[in-house]
């Protein structure tokens, strides 16, 4: 008889790992803005000075994180992606970046995990915005088993780290690494799959002679890994990202600055807004990042 394994959501892994780390790392301070605060009720009672819910005051939350970092603490800051990156962007720029202090930002909601909440809870622009600020590490796990090692490494450091959690997950985890992991080799071109789009990419390229690279860490971008992959294939590069289309195009251009190549980017539209609800899978189809859409487009591009 087969035993069905119950999978834990990424946010639950974040909660459990953070509670465990609060007990062992006195530097750690958790800041929430109502979102997910209920998961930390017991931890707040145990560590009242290090588990702080500021209410719906996201700009103040980042400012507080900057102050805590200046005093030697390691802030972990959590809320929905648009409230964590877009709403307090000036505070990210000044209170963390300009002060040159670190924090771990952990978001949920991704680009359109639950479209029924509307545009206010969607943030396909988050990674592109952070790209305008220096010194950020960006993790985009595609499976719940990738979350804990990425989070523990971020907590143990001192830099500015963004951990982008999603309800969308791949069927299997890929061992965490600092650069690209080669999952398949082929000669027609190179496909980069970032985080939770991997299953669609693998299905969509199943009949395409392509090299498939996977990344759960997309900043810093693995220039060396991409160059090595392109050296073994035709210089066609397709980047499939679970956020704004073309977010990593400038990184590909820098990596292959002296290598003639062709690039096609996949992700959320840049030139128009999808004013629709539906499901996350509906949005995948709309943006062409479902398996069928990728198979048709990448197949044609690599010919």
In short, what is this structure?
Helix content is 35%, strand content 21%.
Using only CA atoms, what is the Rg? 19 Å
| N to C succession of SSEs | HEHEHEHHEHEHEEEHEEHEHEHH
Question: Could you give the order of strands across the largest sheet?
Answer: 2-1-3-4-6-5-10
Inertia-based shape: globular
By CATH reckoning, the class of the largest domain would read: Alpha Beta
Largest sheet: 7 strands, mixed
Tally of discrete structural domains: 2
Write down how many β-strands occur, each being a DSSP E stretch of 2 or more residues: 12
> Might you state the CATH topology name of the largest domain?
Rossmann fold
Percent range of helical residues: 25-40%
Query: Which range does the strand content fall in?
Result: 15-25%
Describe the protein's architecture and organization:
GO terms for molecular function: magnesium ion binding. This is Rif-Orf15B. InterPro entries: PDH/Transketolase, THDP-binding, Transketo_C/PFOR_II, Transketolase-like_Pyr-bd. The chain has 303 residues and is an alpha/beta fold. It has two domains: 10-164, Thiamin diphosphate (ThDP)-binding fold, Pyr/PP domains (Rossmann fold, 3-Layer(aba) Sandwich), CATH 3.40.50.970; 181-301, Rossmann fold (3-Layer(aba) Sandwich). It is 35% helix and 21% strand. The protein has twelve helices and twelve strands. The strands form two sheets. A seven-stranded mixed beta sheet has the order 2-1-3-4-6-5-10, with helices on both faces. Strands 7-9-8-11-12 form a five-stranded mixed beta sheet, sandwiched between helices. α7 (147-156) links the parallel β5 (136-139) and β6 (160-164). The protein is globular and about 60 Å long.
